[in-house]
UniProtKB/TrEMBL annotation:
Its main location: membrane. This is TolC family protein. The lineage of its organism: Bacteria, Pseudomonadati, Campylobacterota, Epsilonproteobacteria, Campylobacterales. It is found in: Cell outer membrane. Pfam families: OEP (PF02321). It comes from the Bacteria. It comes from Poseidonibacter ostreae. The keyword Lipoprotein does not apply.
Length: 414
């Protein structure tokens, strides 16, 4: 009975340990979700968008009537004329409304709407950039982690080689300089481990920064596997739907509306108001007065200000249009480069896989020949270096595939 209870306790502890590991494990999908929620660049850009939403509401206020109250009170030490009172007060309630101002309010409102939509598309584009940056930082961390493992493996091989060489030296089978050479190579391999640890720490900090400063010291970063490597279908006709292009299109429309707003200065302006005035004299007598007024004004010439303002917006429009065309070309170039990088990464991975197999076999052959006294320490050292380089090349090619596909997904906003 005690044995059964002990086994159940051990099973419970083991299950709790496994769950604890899973809780502290971070995979790529989770990292992307955290970045979209907590990344500080996204939060700042979102505030910019919210400001444009308020600007739209602000432009709506120009299309509504204005209501105001005004009160004035006078206390005179001397009377200037006989009908004037020592004290008087006036209370005025007024409702005013702009009947026509050359469609300026409508143009300003439309401009605010387009700018808000442009900001929204810019926010979407930034989120796509953050997704790619998160994947890149995540992959870079795994790359540095694999590099550390590779250097640790190389160091262990040098340790084994050093132990063998030391025994051979003590038996008088090799010269001391051969032993020293192995010791130098072992020390160099240990330095590689130290650098790799520093690179890994930097990569972790970079990933933490993208995730809004998330503490990753107790997190286990899950490795990637080929099951998560999916190549989607990419339709180049969809490139024109990129958020950056849509943002620039909305910006162009906003500039058009701003140009219309300037043209409103060439039209007359008509305002109407209705006010109720209540007069108090000596704080006892009062009279009421209602006033309805209609006013019109027309600016015939203002020193060429409106013409110059129109030219400025015309220049802004041409600049924005040029920027739009350049962005389209840049996106097309991004796609072509990404496709090329993916093709190269796939071929490099095949080559690197074969190189790693060959380097592993070569090291084993040289190791056996060294044990038989046929190969030298130099031969074994060279084989170790070749194996280390092959492992690094395979790791790099493996992650390059992920980066190439992630870049393509960014370009098409998948």
């Amino acid at each position: 009975m005690k044995n059964i209870k002990t086994k159940l306790i051990l099973i419970s502890i083991l299950t709790a340990s496994i769950l604890a590991v899973n809780v502290n494990a971070l995979n790529l999908s989770q990292a992307v979700d955290i970045a979209l929620e907590k990344n500080l660049d996204i939060q700042a850009k979102n505030f910019d968008y919210l400001e444009t939403v308020e600007n739209v509401k602000l432009s709506d206020s120009d299309l509504l009537p204005k209501v105001g109250l005004d009160f004035s009170y006078n206390n005179r030490d001397e009377i200037a004329y006989s009908t004037q009172a020592d004290t008087d007060a006036t209370l005025t309630a007024e409702v005013s409304y702009n009947l026509f101002n050359g469609f300026k309010n409508i143009s300003d409102k439309n401009s605010s709407k387009f700018l808000s939509q442009s900001s929204k598309y810019s926010l979407s584009a930034l989120k796509q950039d953050i997704i790619l940056n998160t994947k890149t930082a995540y992959i870079n961390y795994l790359d540095k982690h694999n590099a550390l493992e590779t250097y640790n493996s190389a160091y262990k091989l040098f340790v084994e080689q050093y132990d063998d060489s030391k025994n051979r030296y003590e038996q008088g089978l090799i010269a001391k300089n051969d032993l020293l050479q192995v010791q130098v190579n072992m020390s160099s391999a240990k330095q590689n481990i130290t650098r790799a640890k520093g690179d890994l720490k930097t990569a972790r900090n970079s990933l933490s920064n993208i995730l809004g400063g998330m503490d990753l010291s107790s997190e286990t970063i899950e490795k990637l596997n080929n099951t998560t490597l999916k190549i989607s279908s990419y339709d180049t006709n969809l490139l024109d739907n990129r958020s950056e292009i849509q943002a620039l299109n909305m910006n162009l429309e906003a500039i058009k509306q701003q140009k219309k707003s300037v043209k409103s200065s060439f039209y007359p302006k008509v305002d109407a108001s209705l006010s109720h005035n209540q007069y108090f004299e000596d704080i006892s007598d009062y009279k009421n007065q209602n006033i309805a007024s209609l006013s019109a004004s027309w600016n015939l010439y203002n020193g060429g200000f409106d013409e110059t303002k129109g030219n400025i917006y015309r220049t802004r429009y041409l600049k924005a249009k040029t920027q739009l065309e350049k962005t389209k070309l840049d996106i097309k170039l991004q796609y072509e480069n990404a496709i090329s990088n993916l093709e190269v990464a796939i071929e490099n991975f095949k080559t690197a896989s074969l190189s790693k197999e060959q380097a592993t076999e070569n090291y084993q052959i040289v190791r056996n020949r060294f044990n038989e006294g046929i190969s030298t320490n130099t031969d074994l050292t060279d084989a170790n270096y070749l194996l280390t380089q092959a492992k690094q090349g395979l790791n790099r090619a493996y992650f390059d595939k992920f980066l190439a596909i992630s870049t393509l997904d960014r370009i098409f906003e998948k």
